TrEMBL record:
Part of the 50S ribosomal subunit. The lineage of its organism: Bacteria, Pseudomonadati, Pseudomonadota, Alphaproteobacteria, Hyphomicrobiales. Residues 1-20 are annotated as: Disordered. Residues 9-58 form the Large ribosomal subunit protein uL30-like ferredoxin-like fold domain. GO terms for biological process: translation. Belongs to the universal ribosomal protein uL30 family. The gene is rpmD. The keyword Ribonucleoprotein applies. This is Large ribosomal subunit protein uL30. The keyword Repressor does not apply.
Length: 65
């Protein structure tokens, strides 16, 4: 059986300088810590919530079906 888990790739587009600690911690939780780094994650409600929290600092690169 093929792996049918959906994934989402995010790229950090904003700096963590002068950002609250919780936003920096959220980026680290997403696997991001420097500008233009990409991280591929499982597409879950928890990950979507984290992306929503720092939506001004990241962009979704691709959505695999």
């Amino acid at each position: 059986m093929a792996n049918t888990e959906k994934t989402i790739t995010v790229e950090q587009t904003g700096s963590t300088l002068r950002r609250p600690k919780d936003q920096r911690a959220t980026l680290i939780g997403l696997g991001l810590n420097k500008m233009h780094r990409r991280s591929t994650l499982k597409d879950t409600p928890e990950v979507r919530g984290m992306i929503n929290k720092v939506q001004h600092l990241v962009r979704v690169v691709e959505d695999n079906a």
